[in-house]
Amino acid sequence: MKTLKLTGLLLCIFIINSCTTNTDEDIPTDLEIILGEYPHSYYHRLILSFQDVSGNDLLNELHNAMDCVYYAEVKRGLYTFKVDFEDGIPNPYEGGSPSIYICKGAPDNIFPELNDDYCYLRFVLCGSRTYPYGVPEGAKQIPFSEKITFTLRCPYLFENNAAHEIVTWWKPSEERFGTTTCYRIEFGSKEFTEIYHSTKTWYSMATLFLDR
User: Fold this and answer.
1) Residue 27: is its pLDDT beyond 80?
2) pTM for the predicted model, two decimal places
């Protein structure tokens, strides 16, 4: 009788374990590569350093105004920011704008190559909608947004209240669905193509130089 009860208990445990949800270890590792982190939109991730012609960090004052040690969202009262996509591509930020973050060095190993003595602005933008398994019936295929214009007003950075345009150029990543890389930036009548990319965090990073 004891043997029968023990057998029944073991059978119940087996059935319960068989019906539980798969753990992360059970999920195929190639699933993430196929779908990407954001399966329904392209995401544009950018880190920018602003320096003068002598290589001095121009974001220090903004960082000090934030009264933060390493990483924080920039207070809305310290800047205005607008994003414009190419003609015909819906703007998910119409009537608003995404947040901007400032960091000192490389928190969370976003970009280990970043200099710990410099501050950086960090942008994450939601771009064109995309479909991993083809466009569903009735849905409209939106072109990829290769050109995205940032309009940034920040007296702590630019030492004036004027709006400054930063034109960024992007391409879809061939390594992971839904991710992008920035390959060119136009700012202050200059073109910047020395842009670094991380295949770990999918950020692009560039240094923009101001004439002062």
Assistant:
1) no
2) 0.75
